[in-house]
Amino acid sequence: DTEVTQTPKHLVMGMTNKKSLKCEQHMGHRAMYWYKQKAKKPPELMFVYSYEKLSINESVPSRFSPECPNSSLLNLHLHALQPEDSALYLCASSQDWGGELFFGEGSRLTVL
Amino acid sequence: GENVEQHPSTLSVQEGDSAVIKCTYSDSASNYFPWYKQELGKGPQLIIDIRSNVGEKKDQRIAVTLNKTAKHFSLHITETQPEDSAVYFCAATLNRDDKIIFGKGTRLHILP
Asked: What residues of chain B, 34 to 63, have a C-beta less than 8 Å from chain A?
């Protein structure tokens, strides 16, 4: 299994809602990542977990809250988002921090 | 910090012809240079990569060349096919913390 699975594929939420994005991999990778991608732009790193510990937070606003319940799962909790947060959110994993990235297909988020 | 420049932003080539995408990087300590292909509605997928101890790497119709002195690397696609149409991102990894820095992307159109 060489897949990174993200759910949901699409999410529409209001600015007062609380929602979560989920990511799962069963490749035994020890590093997992959240990226944000706006249209026609490259992915921007948000968070990195290495061995289930938060290693990097790229100065992401606190309305985005990551969680790594175990080595296979990564969540991104969303609360009080702004319309400008609408984007494709990509999860990725790698064998170790800095290795080849395997991306999921993304969750397309629209904030109304 | 590291900066990766990618050119051109858009490239149209006739089916069967070759396509070349070029990138430059600023940090001479970078030692890993992956290329990702992103098709519409999907996450980026690694297609080829090269490390700084190698000058060229080839995988069927795809090749990457690296010039460490000039700090630039290029993606070459030969005998292009319709399924090569996608956005291609080059990237470089900072040696000291292994964070991947992406170029801005090249939208490749294969014309029938």
From this structure: 34, 36, 41-46, 49
